Amino acid sequence: MSALAIDPYLKIDDLTCEQRILAAKEKLGQRLVILGHHYQREEVFKHADFSGDSLKLSRQAAQSAAEYIVFCGVHFMAEVADILSRPEQIAILPDLGAGCSMADMANLLKVEQAWQALGQYVDVENQITPVTYINSAANLKAFCGRHHGIVCTSTNARRVLEWSFKQREKVLFFPDQHLGRNTGYRMDIPLDQMVVWDFNQPHGGLSEQQIHDAKIILWDGFCSVHQLFEPEDIDNFRAQYPEGKVVSHPESAFEVCEKSDEVGSTEYIIETVNQSPRGSRWLIGTELNLVNRLAKQSEPDGKFVHFMSPIVCMCSTMFRIDPPHLLWVLENLVEGHVVNQIKVEPQEAAEAKIALENMFSVS
Length: 363
Ligand code: 13P
Ligand code: SF4
Description:
By secondary structure, the protein is α/β, with parallel strands linked by helices.
């Protein structure tokens, strides 16, 4: 029998969908684990066996004994689950369209071109540690593995940079310029020693002198969600609520992070609000689904949670994982069909794993 098609699932009403997801989970039992990133919509998030930020979920994927790891998140997360799990385990992404626009801003060809171009001015293998944010394709993690580099997440970026500078004097950091800059600045690296590599220009649009003087070469990538937050959003909040506090994700712009009281990963943001005293008021600079959930959960504790932007900004790719797609992959598993498996080619996975293990060794 062939796999069940998606189309009929798109017409199933919410309640039926929910009941059938629960029934399929029950049938699959211990053979299944559902991982849910904090940005997932509530109707999907509530079915996750484990939730977390990228680091926590990658650890969960590495430790899970389940045969099927259904990742309610985006493509690079399911790739990491495949790389870190045992060969017989199967990583599944309910909708293959759930990518990450920031991850797509760097690709192997452009990074290799950059590496070669940098090589005309410096001894790249001995002077530069390549660091990729986990929000990147597996072949970029493999690039880092091949070149004695490392992966980082928003939780461990500082420790990863410290490790990187112990290996070599410079870092090429991709794809998120903001995470690189915000982390570097907190390590006392002056802004003028963190240059942006414009991957559409020869030599990244940089002079030989700029490359020689740079400590961190930042890829010209960004998150389309977090770039919507503005320093003025924080000014307006503080004018209205002088006692309020601000916490932002480090993918936000430098000026936003500088004006924030706290900066950290999605898990850090949640913990920070959870640990704050009753009556606290928070402005949060990260994705809307997380903020809405946190606002709802914090209300009974007498805490007030505000979203940073007047614009409704959600991660549209995270949002692609909806209950019908989740149900579709689960019922196929019940019927013995694997759909939407994410499989990284073995050589690439082995090299990517080196860079991921370097990260775990410093986290
Ligand atoms: P976290 O690792 O902080 O959850 O971030 C992932 C992400 O994609 C943020 O945009
Ligand atoms: Fe990628 Fe931004 Fe979405 Fe995170 S919020 S998954 S960085 S597009």
